[in-house]
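WARN retry 2 of 3 for item q-0093 after timeout on previous attempt; input resubmitted unchanged.
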Amino acid sequence: MANEVESVRQLTSEIEGCISDAEGELLYRLAKDVPEGQAIVEVGRGKDKSTVWLAKGSEAGGKNKVYSIASHKGSPDHIKVDEEDMHTEFIANLTKARVQDTVVSLHETSEEAARRWKEKIGLLWINTSHEYEDVKKVILSWQRYLYPNAIVAVHGCNQPGPSQVVKECLGNLGYFTFEQSVDTTMVVTVDKCIHYWIIDSHEIGICKYCGRKRNFRSLRTEDTKTETKRREAGKKRK
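OK item q-0093 returned
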C-alpha cells in the first residue's frame, strides 16, 4: 500500500487543497475500506486534492462512486464564474489522475443534493466552511442516508465550529462514536450499540448496555424544529 499512497501523493502534489498528505492518506484508506455498493459523498468548499485521494482509494477497494458536492456563497454572477473556472480545472485534475469515471460532480448545494438523494452512504467526507451551522447542517442533511457501518470524516476540527459539531455527535445526544484523528480531521462512526433505553419520568434514557444517555424530550423538540424548517423551505420553493 505504501507504493500506492506515494503514487497518489505525487499526483496530488500540484493540486490545490487544504488537506495535508497525512489526511490524504487517511481519506485513501477510508475510501478503500468502504464495502462494495456503498456510495462515498464529499461535501466541500471546493473540489480539490481530497477528491483524487478518495477516488484512488475507492478504485483500490470497492470501486464505489465518489459524489463530489461543493457549496458556495456570494452573488449569483460571482458563483457562476467561479463554478465554471473551478469545474474546468477540476475536470482537468480528475482526467490527469485518471479518476474521471469514478467521480460524479453534482452542481448543487449540499441541501439540494440531500433532498433528492436515494443511495446509502458508506463514507461521508465533510470539508465545508468552518462555521458551526454549516457543518451541523451537512450532518443533519445526510445522516439519514448513512449505512449502520458508515464513517464520517470532518475536516478543520482545530477550529471551534467543526470541533463543537463533532463534540455534539459524540455526546449523550449524538449518534456517533470516536474512531481516530489525523491532523485537523476527526473520524467518527455510526454508533453500533443496539440500545436498550431505560427512560425515567423526565424522559432521560440510559442504555443498559453502553450507558449512553438520551434526552428524549430534547430530541423531540429538535425533530420538531427541523421538520418545521423543512416545511418552510418547501413552501418557499413552491
